[in-house]
Specification:
345 residues; mainly beta; Jelly Rolls; 2 domains; 9-stranded antiparallel β-sheet; 44% strand
């Protein structure tokens, strides 16, 4: 871990290599398009979140509810990119609906956000529909924004307000410089030390952590599957100690809505991820769903921020039942250096 003085010297050396404020052009090979590791949406919106970070733009002037966009009318909705590590953020490039206000904020911990840029109606060139805008003066789609110094951040959040309340975002890209970070280990599967089931359910709760996943499409009452109909039932998995949980894989019965919460003490729980059986690739029966990007069952819309946890609670929140879970796998990383702790959404 860098000392405060060491980090300051490193930061100053990077800043000195940058152009003067208001002229943040590409200066050297270290200036990069920072590929977001994941994106999370909060609120009510339409279309897949993967559209926001897939590297493609819609045609300018397309309508706000184009198939290439995530669009919404809920002013409480917002979208957060996790860059996977801290970077020195210099520029942003986005494509949004032209007649609304869009606010970009940044954060180091994913909890406390600070305003970075505000894009107002008329900043772009189309005058109607989707418009591409950049904070980089050298970009042809530059929007005349107030001068900003580079900021250190891992998370970038976008929200919208005012206008006609028909909001849209087709792409959000972030540019800047890498910082020297502590090295992160690879994801590995955590072996839980135990599980407890509460309420009325059928079969041994230990089946959920026995390492065996039944065939895709299996019937909810097949061998190896824990099932129930009472929404009061839930299961608590004990990982044995605190880990930085980065992803989960779970097999559930299609048709229900399930949640996984996390806790350090088995008393106070925070929501980690909500899983709708229909988001997978099976129309019926048991379906395996994963938040690990390298997993063939990966579903990007379920990405969550890594969280420090020892206990995971699994339960159903709605559906026509019966509800069923056959297997849960938990992934974590070990960080060499100070841990990146931000146990929240």
């Amino acid at each position: 871990m860098l000392s405060h003085m060491g980090f300051f010297c490193m930061l100053m050396s990077i800043v000195l290599c940058l152009p003067a404020a208001g002229a943040q052009a590409v200066q050297d090979e270290d200036y990069i398009l920072i590929q977001a590791r994941s994106v999370q949406g909060d609120g009510i919106y339409s279309n897949s979140l993967k559209l926001l970070i897939d590297g493609t733009f819609a045609n300018d002037a397309r309508p706000w509810n184009d198939a290439r966009c995530v669009y919404w009318e809920d002013e409480q909705a917002h979208f957060t990119l996790d860059l996977g590590a801290e970077f020195l953020i210099v520029d942003v490039l986005l494509q949004v609906d032209d007649d609304d206000i869009y606010t970009i904020e940044y954060s180091v911990d994913g909890l406390n956000f600070i305003p970075l840029h505000v894009f107002y109606p008329g900043y772009g060139e189309t005058g109607v529909g989707l418009d591409t805008m950049s904070s980089n003066p050298e970009n042809p789609d530059y929007a005349s924004l107030p001068e900003k110094e580079p900021v250190q951040a891992r998370y970038i959040r976008l929200s919208a307000s005012s206008g006609d309340r028909k909001y849209a975002l087709a792409e959000l890209q972030v540019f800047g410089y890498p910082l020297e970070e502590e090295e992160a280990g690879e994801n590995w599967i955590v072996t839980p030390t135990g599980i407890q089931g509460f309420g009325a359910f059928s079969r041994d709760a230990a089946l959920i952590i026995d390492g065996f996943t039944p065939a895709e499409g299996s019937v909810w009452e097949d061998d190896g599957i824990v099932y129930w109909e009472d929404l009061e039932a839930y299961f608590v998995v004990d990982l044995g100690r605190a880990y930085e949980v980065t992803a989960v894989q779970i097999q559930v019965n299609v048709g229900g809505r399930y949640r996984i919460d996390y806790s350090l003490d088995d008393r106070e729980y925070i929501s980690l991820v909500e899983i709708v059986g229909a988001v997978g690739d099976k129309g019926s029966g048991m379906d395996t769903i994963s938040t690990l990007p390298t997993d063939p069952e990966y579903v990007i819309d379920l990405d969550f921020f890594p969280a420090e946890a020892r206990y995971l609670k699994i339960y159903a929140v709605e559906g026509d039942g019966p509800y069923a879970v056959s297997e849960l796998q938990v992934y974590a990383v070990e960080r060499r250096g100070h841990a990146d702790r931000h146990g929240g959404r």
